[in-house]
Write a structure and sequence with these properties.
By secondary structure, this protein is of the alpha/beta class. It has two domains: 15-250, Aspartate Aminotransferase, domain 2 (3-Layer(aba) Sandwich), CATH 3.40.640.10; 252-373, Alpha-Beta Complex (Aspartate Aminotransferase, domain 1). The protein contains 14 helices and twelve strands. It has helices at residues 15-26, 34-47, 58-68, 86-93, 115-118, 138-148, 202-209, 215-219, 239-250, 252-277, 302-314, 330-334, 343-351, 363-373, and strands at 51-55, 76-80, 97-101, 123-129, 151-155, 163-164, 167-168, 175-179, 192-196, 288-289, 295-298, 352-355. The chain has a seven-stranded mixed β-sheet, with helices on both faces. It has a three-stranded antiparallel β-sheet with strand order 7-6-10, with no helix packed on it. Helix 6 links the parallel strand 4 (123-129) and strand 5. Helix 1 (15-26) packs antiparallel against helix 9 (239-250) and helix 2 (34-47) packs across helix 9 (239-250). The radius of gyration is 21 Å and the shape is globular.
Length: 380
């Protein structure tokens, strides 16, 4: 039996599975059922939003955001170069052009100071990413977008119910997106949500999600039949998955307590070693309540990272790198990306490592990870 401490493991307990069985037994397994409605209420209430619409993935929620912008072919959307591909591809797929920007050294979130350098007359929006459940300087970014007439979208895949400056992450822009993929704190295997903070966008968002029809209005009794009224696709989450998600949302405090305990132990147990070896641990700015989504560290070089991951593997710990710089991907280069363009992104792409962090880790597992990590010595 493999004794490796896994990087990630989704944990389903109690009502997660009970609600799944109820959805199957109740005969409403497609989208739009009672568990969908209940989960959407939890999300909209938690964000004080005009609406929260469950989707089949965070990627699809980002595509809905792009459609709601009514992008023209020359329109640009600023995105961080250090992010998952969906943050950029969603806008490219829906007619826009992603324009990359670097991230800040401390949190690896969008560098607000760089926006004036990449913004042009064609810029329509900024899509920031709340990396590791922390976020950029969102008050400042929101003010910048308002002053420049830009729509702000938050890719909040890492940041469910995190807070900054007293506000929930995902509430600083007109729209935000969530992920419930198996690697996330709260999961249904595959799923996402679009959080709509601008009430004027709710009706069209519902239409886009439901194949371009006004089916939602029909079910509310606002029209006597539903029909095709706009573009759209089939992005409604199954009520079975919504049931699993609702169970997880009801256990949110328990899930977060476990994750924060592990995160804090890593941070404490690695601090002296990191100082001695020149390793960079996560930075949590003042006024931020992070989500303990991931615990990352950055080695002194790419060669050190390769040695570090190999050492942990030998000791039975599965640690992984994260994003590769989008501007240096094959598509990114077609969009004008060049080596040396975004130094912080490129350094993170070479040196960042994520440690195991999930609800199935035992205290012994955590201490084993710390022991393995602190056995590493940086190169000269």
């Amino acid at each position: 039996m493999d004794q490796t401490i896994r990087f990630n493991r989704a944990v389903f307990e109690g009502r997660d599975l009970e609600y799944l069985r109820e959805a199957i037994a109740g005969g409403h397994v497609s989208g739009g059922g009672p568990f969908t409605s209940a989960a959407e209420r939890v999300l909209s209430d938690g964000h004080d939003a005009s609406a929260a619409l469950l989707t089949t993935s965070c990627t699809h929620a980002l595509e809905m955001s792009a459609l709601l912008l009514n992008l023209e072919p020359a329109d640009e959307v600023i995105v961080p170069a250090y992010t998952f591909v969906s943050t950029a591809s969603a806008f490219l797929l829906r007619g826009g052009r992603p324009v990359f920007s670097d991230v800040s050294e401390d949190t690896l979130n969008l560098d607000v100071d760089m926006l004036d350098r990449v913004r042009t007359a064609r810029t329509r929006a900024v899509c920031t990413v709340n990396y590791a459940g922390i976020g950029a300087d969102l008050e400042r970014l929101s003010a910048y977008c308002r002053a420049e007439g830009l729509t702000l979208i938050e890719d909040n895949a890492h940041g469910l119910f995190g807070r900054q400056a007293g506000k929930p992450l995902g509430t600083f822009g007109s729209l935000s997106t969530l992920s419930f993929h198996e690697t996330k704190n709260v999961t249904c295997g595959e799923g996402g949500a679009l959080v709509v903070n601008d009430a004027s966008l709710v009706e069209r968002a519902e239409i886009l999600r439901d194949k371009g029809t006004d089916r939602s209005r029909f079910f509310r009794g606002e029209v006597d039949r539903y029909t095709w009224v706009d573009v759209g696709s089939s992005w409604v989450l199954s009520d079975m998955l919504a049931g699993m998600l609702l169970g997880q949302l009801e256990r949110f405090e328990e899930i977060q307590h476990r994750r924060h305990r592990i995160w804090a132990r890593y941070n404490e147990g690695l601090a002296d070693w990191a100082t001695r070896e020149g390793i960079r641990l996560p930075t949590i700015p003042d006024g931020v309540e992070h989500t303990a989504h991931l615990f990352h560290l950055r080695t002194r070089s790419g060669a050190d990272r390769d040695r570090f991951i190999a050492l942990l593997k030998e000791r039975g710990v599965h640690a992984v790198f994260h994003y590769q710089p989008l501007h240096l991907s094959s598509v990114g280069r077609q969009l004008g990306g060049q080596p040396g363009q975004f130094p912080v992104t490129e350094d993170a792409g070479d040196t960042l490592v994520r440690l195991p962090l999930h609800g199935a880790l035992t205290e012994t597992d955590v201490e084993t990870v710390i022991e393995a990590v602190t056995a590493f010595r940086s190169g000269s």
